[in-house]
Structure formats: structure tokens, C-alpha cells
Amino acid sequence: MGGSTEANQQASVSVSLLLVAGPHHLATRELRQLTAFLRDDHRELDLRLQLIDPGRNPELLELHKLVATPALVKLSPTPRQVFMGITMLSQVRSWLPRWGQMERLNGLAMPVIPSPMEDGRDSSRALELEDQLLVLRQENEALIARLQFQERQLRMVAHDLRTPMTTTSLALQSFKRGQIGNEELLDILGRRLHEMEQLSRDLLEVGSTRWEALFNPQRLTLSQVCADVLLELEKVWSGRNLAVQTDIPSDLPDVFADSRRMRQVLLNLLENAFKFTPDGGRVKLSLMHRTSQWVQVSICDNGPGIPVDEQERIFQDQVRLSQTSWKTAGFGVGLSVCRRVVEVHTGKIWVVSEPGEGSCFYFTVPVWRNQKLPSR
């Protein structure tokens, strides 16, 4: 029995893994499943997992040449490997058996099955070339992922620039009609120019910054953000005889969120509701303290509604509903922007709709509970 145990210990292969992920990533279902799998007993493999927060250790991103997080890095045995994306678990499952085989082959003094046309040096060289090819493929995949990430960021920032430009245009029209004075006009122009300056800064950072770096959560009174957004969009709905209703409890707790990003989500969803609600229709904005951990926001309208088979697809990049695409201009990125912002807050966003009966968009925001502010 002692000899068998010793043999099993000798056969065990140690694999060192580094999971680079922030707290909001670790809270997702995919990352929970991945960490649970890696901590299971894998018989001949001794998996040693280390968790690193990129916010506290940003130097690791450069050290391991990571273009996005979360990422899983295999440090040893060589060669180094990097896994990214929502398929990390399936990728690791497929590689586990080979990790053991590669390490055992590296420990042998000669090939397992010598070939008459191939000596040990040739076999070792073939394995080395195969490993180098693997690394090149992974670096190529990482480069493609980075280019796709930059493209998404450019579309998102370009989309965001529309809102302050539209508001500025409406303010100028109101000024020409005598509806607002010089002081109010200058105030609107100043705030909108400041917002465009911030968006321009985001645009310049797209090539070198991760999405999380543009995310700055603080203690936030969400009801005040809602009031500001409704006031800003007043010119959009006030002349159309729309009934705008609000249901915001006075005892609503503060949330832990990025003020600018929350305003971005509310602007997108309310603009869509006003756009697709017919004259004389109604739009309702509600906030609810759903649980001890979440505040739920809902924006409902009585517009044309959304077909059931398209309700999941509308949150993808560059998707616009077929029945409305001819009426509106620009990239269909508004709802994908909302999804990304809500998810980086660890919340969820969804829609409930019936064609001809309107739509209700919901999203959740974490309640402020003395969370640590992100380090800069």
C-alpha cells in the first residue's frame, strides 16, 4: 500500500494557475463555476490556483501581456498559456489531460516510443515547435479579441456623443424661440461641453484602457440622477402630450454606482421609450428597493412592443429591431451599451414586452453598503 501511494505521489503533476479577475468578475456564474472546477480533485493533477485583483496589481497585466480581464494564466509547466472569454471553463477542461501528458513527457530521458527515423532530439524539437505554435495561436486570438474590444469601445463612445449634441441643439432651438434666457443657455452649453470633453477623453483611452478603468463607482443618490435626466429630456417629450409618471420611494437607499454611467443608461432607455411611444402615450419610471442588496429600476412605455424572439438579441452589439430600423438612424449600440454598463456594476438588465402593448425595461444596481472605492 505504501509503494502504491508513493507511486501516485510521483505521478502527480503540479500545475500553477493565476486567475486575474476583479470582484465583480468573480461574482459572475461563469467565474464561480471555473473556480469551483479548478479547486476540485483532479487525481493526477495538483492544480494550484492563485486569485489576483487587477485593480490592486495592475503591473501583472503588462507582465503577462493581458489585453482583457478576466484571464486565466497557466504559469507552469511550460509553455505559459492564457485563457480568456466566457469559454474559459470549456478550454481548461479540454487542456487538463494534456497538461499531465506534457509534463510526464518532459520528465522522460527519451521518447516513449522511439521511431527508427527519429531520435530523442528530433522528438523533443517537435514537441517544442508544437508548444511554440500553441503560444502563437493564443497570442493571435488575444490580438483579435483586443481589436474587437477597441471597435466596441469606439462605437459606444461615438453613440454617447449623440446625447449632449442633441441636448445642445434643443437648447439652441429653445433659445431662438425665447423659451430660455441667456443664463440658462450658457449653463446647458457649459455642462454639455464638459460632458463631450469627458467622452473625448474616453475615446483617446480606448486603445490602452480596459472597460473597468473607465468605471468609477461611488455612493450615489439614484433618484437625483433620474430627476436630472428627466429634466434634460423635457424638450423631447413635453410637446407631444406624453404622460410621464414617476414612482420613486422617499426612503430609497443610495446605490454603489458610477454617476456618469448610470446617467448614460437612463438616458438611453428613456430616449428609446419617448421615441417609440406615440403622441398622447405614457412612459413610467419606477425605482424599487427590491432586496437588501439591489435597487431595481424599470422604464415602461405603451409603444409598439418587442417580439419575444428578439427580446434577448436586442442587447447584442449593433442590433436593431427589423420593424423599427427604417425609422431610426445610427448604429444599434444603445442597448448593448446599457447591458455592458449594468453588467460592470454586477447587475442585470432585461425586458418584458408584448407586441402592441408596450415594453418594460428593468435593470438592477447594487445598494451602497460601505463598499471599498476602486483604487487609482
Cα Rg = 27 Å
The domain tally reads 3
Strand order of the largest sheet: 6-8-9-11-10
Q: Helical percent range?
A: 40-55%
Content of β-strand:
15-25%
Topology-level CATH name of the largest domain = Heat Shock Protein 90
| Biggest pleated sheet | 5 strands, mixed
Query: What is the N-to-C succession of helices and strands?
Result: HEHHEHEEHHHEHHEEHEEHEE
On the 0 to 100 scale, the average pLDDT is: 76
CATH architecture of the largest domain: 2-Layer Sandwich
Number of strands: 11
Spatial shape? elongated
The CATH homologous superfamily of the largest domain is called Histidine kinase-like ATPase, C-terminal domain
CATH class of the largest domain: Alpha Beta
Number of helices: 11
Q: How many angstroms does the end-to-end distance come to? A: 56 Å
Q: Note poorly predicted spans.
A: 1-10, 108-121, 205-209, 322-332
Based on secondary structure, the structural category is: alpha+beta
Describe the 3D structure.
The protein is α+β, with helices and mostly antiparallel strands. It has 3 domains: 13-85, Glutaredoxin (3-Layer(aba) Sandwich), CATH 3.40.30; 128-207, Helix Hairpins, CATH 1.10.287; 218-366, Heat Shock Protein 90 (2-Layer Sandwich), CATH 3.30.565. The protein is 46% helix and 17% strand. It has 11 helices and 11 strands. It has helices spanning 2-11, 23-26, 29-38, 59-63, 88-106, 120-176, 182-205, 222-232, 234-237, 259-276, 334-344; strands spanning 13-20, 45-52, 71-76, 81-84, 218-220, 243-247, 255-257, 282-288, 294-301, 349-353, 359-366. The strands form 3 sheets. A 5-stranded mixed sheet has the order 6-8-9-11-10. Helix 10 packs antiparallel against helix 11. The radius of gyration is 27 Å and the shape is elongated.
